[in-house]
Design a protein that fits this description.
Elements lengths: L2 H33 L5 H30 L8 H9 L1 H18 L12 H16 L2 H9 L3 H25 L5 H26 L3 H5 L23 H21 L1 H9 L4 H14 L1 H21 L11 H41 L1 H4 L3 H28 L2 H29 L2 H26 L14 H21 L4 H26 L1 H9 L1
Helix pairs in contact: 1-7, 1-13, 2-4, 2-5, 2-10, 2-12, 4-5, 5-8, 7-8, 10-17, 11-17, 12-16, 13-16, 14-16, 14-19, 14-20, 16-18, 17-18, 19-20
């Protein structure tokens, strides 16, 4: 496929994924604000930290490495062997589910049944939901490799909406059900998600559209495990790459969900504090999940298709190198500016946001400071997402293996630092440890990118340098909005709050106008793609 064609489809995939994420996180955002008024902080802490961690760990360990390895090839790969490899995620998921389920039930502190009823049923349901979701993995990878944008949007939309509707109904009618509510909602979510993919492929395969696209799979039967005579069951090169990525994904999961593991296994916060931390964490990470994650996922596919893994810059097609360098530079500039905007305005508007969202339960105590620190962490997340997506798309097997050792050392350091910082500074310690961890990962990825382009005329890391005028406007906006918070927020009534919002809106408008004047190349890229 032509690189420009891939870029067009990739940006469509990223923007529609981002739009989808915004819409559905907004729904679950509203849902959380609603359930906060009906359920205890402890119950939300157990669901959002303990049980969600079980589900995400099983799913991540069972499929992440397979996804990365199977999406690394081109679309002309031997799909029969790739599909066979992908079905191995299901037995792997069952093993992880049983093992981790027993750990969650017998080795971890069990919540008080009078405060959080039906914990055991919750563990079983969340473990089962992970296995159900893995049944759709071959369908998901096929759809992602062939850039089926609408399918992903519709499947995730329907599943999130159905989960939210069921949760609201059960919370209002049967609040005493406790974890049964979230267990049923979770099972409905994964069932709808998998069914959407299955039904779509049943209709798509064999259709005139599939024939026109010369789709590599012709019948539904081909999406089941198949033995080919005189050939191996799986592609061993893909399988070895999967094993490399598996070792790395194991560590990446510890780093990504590190604070939840520390909370879950080391009991540094009680369930109530875990509930507040998780709500603030979700609020802070909205942008990361809305915008940065879709960009990272989609452009990983773009870089992997435009440039060949394991080859140095001189051995690649020079037109493709020029295009990849240009896209990387503009992506870095884009996420940097989004991150800076959130950091600057997050400091002055955290308390107001929490007060509107969850009332005094969130806006008093550590909530506002947590969100302020998180707005700085978003800047680290933004840059790390793009630098790592490029690095992972180009590393050869040996480089991935070497990076695994770096991740191992980093995982251990991160867990130690978060444990000590949490004892020293409560839940804020988690976010500071995350900033440290992301900083080191960014340093590694930028070093890789610098080395990669060293022998070419391109310097994509220039994208990390905004114009001095824009930096000055950011500083002035930060000072003015910070002064406004001290003067008008948040216990001086609604009129003072509106003045504070107005001041922020003016500063934000000034920042955006400056951006349009100074970053013309970036504005053109965003508009054209």
């Amino acid at each position: 496929r032509e690189p420009m064609d891939v870029l067009g489809q990739t940006t469509r995939l990223a923007s529609s994924s981002a739009l989808l994420q915004v819409l559905f996180r907004a729904v679950s955002f509203g849902l959380n604000a609603f359930t906060l008024r009906y359920l205890s902080r402890e119950l939300l802490g157990v669901v959002n930290v303990r049980l969600t961690l079980l589900y995400s760990t099983v799913v991540f360990l069972a499929r992440e490495a397979f996804r990365r390895a199977c999406l690394s090839g081109n679309t002309k790969q031997n799909w029969t062997k790739t599909i066979n490899l992908l079905w191995l995620t299901v037995p792997l998921g069952v093993c992880w589910s049983i093992f981790l389920g027993l750990v969650w039930l017998h080795l971890l502190e069990v919540p008080d049944p009078s405060v959080v009823p039906h914990y055991q049923a919750g563990v079983v349901a969340f473990g089962l939901s992970a296995v159900i979701e893995l049944l759709g993995e071959p369908f998901w990878v096929l759809a992602q490799a062939h850039l089926f944008v609408r399918l992903k949007v519709i499947a995730e939309s329907l599943s999130v909406v159905s989960k939210c509707i069921l949760t609201v109904i059960l919370v209002v009618l049967y609040p005493q059900w406790g974890l049964y509510i979230f267990s049923l909602a979770q099972l409905l979510y994964v069932s709808v998600l998998v069914m959407c993919y299955v039904i779509y492929f049943m209709m798509f395969l064999g259709s005139p559209e599939a024939t026109k696209k010369s789709f590599p799979v012709a019948r539904m039967k081909a999406l089941l495990p198949n033995l080919v005579e005189d050939e191996t069951f799986v592609n061993w090169k893909e399988a070895r790459l999967t094993w490399s990525f598996f070792k790395q994904s194991f560590l990446k999961q510890i780093l990504t969900e590190g604070e939840r593991y520390v909370m879950t296994f080391l009991n540094v916060l009680n369930f109530g504090d875990q509930g507040v931390y998780d709500i603030v964490n979700n609020l802070g990470s909205l942008v990361a999940r809305f915008i940065f994650l879709p960009i990272e996922e989609s452009f990983y596919v773009f870089f992997a298709k435009v440039l060949e893994r394991g080859k140095n810059v001189k051995d690649q097609k020079q037109d493709d190198v020029a295009m990849a360098a240009n896209v990387l530079e503009l992506l870095l500039k884009l996420v940097l500016l989004i991150g800076l905007t959130i950091t600057v305005f997050g400091f002055a508007y955290s308390q107001l946001a929490l007060d509107i969202y969850g009332g005094s339960m969130l806006s008093s105590g550590t909530g506002p400071d947590l969100l302020r620190c998180y707005s700085l962490y978003v800047l680290f997340l933004a840059i790390n997402g793009v630098t790592e997506c490029f690095t992972f798309a180009l590393m050869c097997k040996e480089e991935v293996d070497r990076y695994n050792f770096v991740m191992l050392a980093l995982s251990f350091t991160f867990l130690c630092i978060s444990y000590f910082l949490t004892h020293w500074h409560g839940s804020i310690g988690f976010i500071l440890a995350n900033c440290f961890n992301m900083g080191i990962r960014i340093a590694h990825s930028t070093h890789y990118i610098y080395d990669y382009f060293k022998e070419s005329a391109y310097r994509p890391l220039a994208g990390l340098l905004p114009s001095p005028v824009l930096v000055l406007v950011y500083i002035i906006s930060g000072v003015i909005s910070g002064f406004s918070e001290v003067m008008f927020c948040c216990d001086k009534g609604w009129m003072a709050r509106l003045v504070h919002i107005g001041v922020g809106a003016l500063c934000f408008a000034a920042t955006i106008v400056t951006m349009f004047c100074t970053e013309t190349k970036l504005v053109h890229f965003v508009r054209s793609q």
